[in-house]
Amino acid sequence: MTDLNNLTPEKLRMVDGLFCVDEPRLSDMKSWEGQKFIQFTNESPNNYKPTSYIREDPIEWLARQPFNIENLTKNSTIVSFIASHWTYFRKELISNLQVYIPIASFGKVYKNTNWNIHPECSILEESTSQHEYFKAKNCIIVKYPFYLAIENLQEQDYSTEKLWDAFRLGIIPTI
Question: Where does the record place the Fucosyltransferase C-terminal domain (predicted)?
Answer without folding.
Answer: 75-174
